[in-house]
């Protein structure tokens, strides 16, 4: 499945700078929404634990870039439900939603540190 491949690719990207902290927090919301969908759909080939771990990694990166835990949580509270719906529609037959998920995955990819770099 493409999402599983995207998760693998996400693990090898460049680190975020402080001006990208909100984008990184948005990626936390994106993957938190995915985790909620995957929890409810155990037949999928990706573990909700994997997406929860990605969401946490993005929270950690946003915090390291200077964003407060309260601001990160605020972004997640505003955006996770929308991303959950997007992921559900992408799993269905909605090609536009799948395209958006793939593009967002690609944007988030550039915000993760390369393996071996904190």
Brief descriptors of the model:
disordered N terminus; mainly alpha; signal; 118 residues; 71% helix
Chart the SSEs and their pairings.
Layout: H1 2-10, H2 21-40, H3 48-64, H4 69-91, H5 95-109
Keywords: Signal
Biased composition (Basic and acidic residues): 96-107
Region (Disordered): 92-118
Short account of what is shown:
The chain is mainly α. The protein contains five helices and no strands.
Roughly what is the average pLDDT, rounded to an integer? 83
This entry's quaternary arrangement is single chain
> What fraction strand?
under 5%
Count of discrete domains: 1
Quote the distance from N terminus to C terminus. Answer: 29 Å
Largest sheet: none
What is the string of helix and strand elements?
Answer: HHHHH
Radius of gyration: 13 Å
* Spans of at least 5 consecutive residues with low confidence: 1-16
Shape: globular
* Alpha-beta content class: mainly alpha
Report the count of strand segments: 0
Task: Give the helix proportion (percent range).
Answer: over 70%
């Amino acid at each position: 499945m493409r999402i599983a491949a995207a998760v693998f690719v996400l693990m090898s990207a460049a680190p975020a700078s402080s001006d990208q902290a909100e984008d990184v927090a948005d990626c936390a919301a994106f993957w938190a929404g995915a985790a909620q969908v995957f929890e409810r759909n155990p037949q999928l080939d990706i573990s909700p634990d994997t997406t929860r771990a990605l969401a946490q990694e993005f929270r950690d990166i946003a915090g390291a870039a200077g964003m407060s835990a309260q601001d990160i949580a605020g972004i997640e509270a505003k955006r996770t439900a929308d991303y959950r719906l997007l992921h559900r529609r992408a799993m269905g037959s909605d090609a536009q939603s799948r395209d958006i998920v793939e593009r967002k995955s690609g944007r988030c990819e550039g915000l993760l540190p390369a393996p071996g770099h904190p």
